[in-house]
Predict the 3D structure of the following.
Amino acid sequence: MVARFRLSIALRRRRDFTINPLLRSFRTPAPTSCNLNLQSCQYHSTNKPTNAKSSIPRISDAGYQNMAMSNRMIAKLSREGRIAEARRLLDKMPDPDVIAWTSVISAHINRGMVREARELFDRVDAKKNVVTWTAMINGYLRRTNDVSEAEKLFNEMAYKNEVSWNTMIDGYVRNGLIDSALSLFEKMPVKNVVSWNTIINTLGQCGRIEEARKLFDCMPKRDVISWTSMISTLSKNGRIDEARVVFDSMPERNVVSWNAMITGYAQNLRLAEGFDLFERMPERDVPSWNAIITGFVQNGDLERAQKLFNDMPQKNVISWTSMITGYVQDGQSEEALRKFSRMQAADGVKPNQGTFVSVLGACSDLAGLSEGRQIHQVICKTVHQNDAFVVSALINMYSKCGELGTAGKMFNDGFSSQRDLVSWNGMIAAYAHHGCGDEAIGLFKEMRNLDIQPNDVTYVGLLAACSHAGLVDDGLKYFDELTRDNAIQIRQEHYACLVDLCGRAGKLKEAFEFIQKLPTEPSANVWRALLAGCNVHGNTDIGKLASMKILDVEPENACTYMSLSSIYASTGRWREAAKLRMEMKDKGLKKQPGCSWIDVGNKVHVFVVGDESYSESSFIFPLLNDLHAKMEAGHVIKVDQLMEEDFSVG
């Protein structure tokens, strides 16, 4: 009898340590009253040793084996997404334990079936522990964003551990309730390092740097994540020197810490110090290389970025996308397309959302319809075909390649089920690009009727559409509407659009007065829009003033000299025009010659201003001369020809 009793105790102890380690780690106290099951045996073995005189009935070895087997099968079915089968198995079990209940409830939550999970959770016979409660709370926070229901459950919990508290704090953060997260953090009876890291990182992302730093200094124990998070927070908010002090104070660093510091230097335009740190790294991973390459790309140093890219021992999609984006931003769209082709030939590297958006931008810049269509075919074979930003880039590409019908079809048909603000903005911008002001306004009204709130990008496209279509009154009305919308911050692009609108309509004096009353210093683009209007309408006084403002910011801008020279020439002030051209020559400034191209029969034909080397030039120039003779605005043509020929700079 004694031998049998010892064997029974040994079996129980062994089973206590083979229960799901995740469930065991929570060490939840036993319920005040519950049916006997494997989990309750664990509680008793943890909190109170079992003895031979216990009044708790025992389960046979066969019962334990059947329950453990059922739990393993339920866990397997849940992982595979076979929830209905897992549910049927749960219902067939004579007395499922808390492990089985938690597995099935969690499976429903992971599949987004929160309502069905709650029905199981609320059943009278459901067995729950802290893991089950925390899973249900997490479901409401992550799957349905129902913070109030999660709060109710959290407050009803009889016992909470650190994971429960951290889950609720993270839920507040995800839903933008930062003060609620901070308040709950302060109420935590025991805070672990995850709790501290979550709240410090959140405060940093919200720009509440002083609070984040104060909490960081109060931390009883910090891990490498704590230090790295503080470095990133300070760097992103321009306090790079303070971030370096934190970095140098770290008791131990990993590669992520080094990468955070290098990225901080890149973000703050201090590439020399970032590169010095990169060179001193004890070990580098792919993100290390990507951080420094992206830094050089963002600072316009493509040559050094390309050299580092070539030296990389291993490249991933971020490496390729950084270089493609850099070339597009630098106006080297053809090189960006070549990079994309090489990327596709690389083993194991698949384009992501950013890659497609950048390379479609290159196609838009080049008006490369055939290349854009090929990339569209590639996109259709990926998970990114319904991505809002990718579809918006496709709409923009087709629009700039002259395929407005295709762009409209993509918007109206292919993306109707997932239309969001990005796609609406893309289509409004497409109409603006083609001067379809009425269509852009109609789309804007339709968007408002569907309760989709416009943002700053929406108004840039709308104002540009009004400007290009000459809809002055509509443009002024929508700009006034923008100024009264406190939810949208007015940017320099909006001011430039309004100035362009007035300039095209010949209201140059009003545009100039508007610029003088701006609450912020006008950008070069605002003055450039005014100069363009002066060029069209021959206003030399305001044009000269605008050009001087631009040259204060961009003294080497040849286009500004050319525009002002053109204004002088169009009003017969040839001496001033010639003087400007001589000034350009003395400074070594040259305007990039105009260039255009067409794709005929899978062959690109390129035309450059003044170039007579094209094989069909002998036929083209007589035709152009004939067209010039028949055009009503022949005087303007003569002025332009005079500017190109008589005042050309060698």
Observations:
- The first strand starts at residue 595 and ends at 600.
- The chain has a mean pLDDT of 81.
- The CA atoms of residues 570 and 636 lie 8 Å apart.
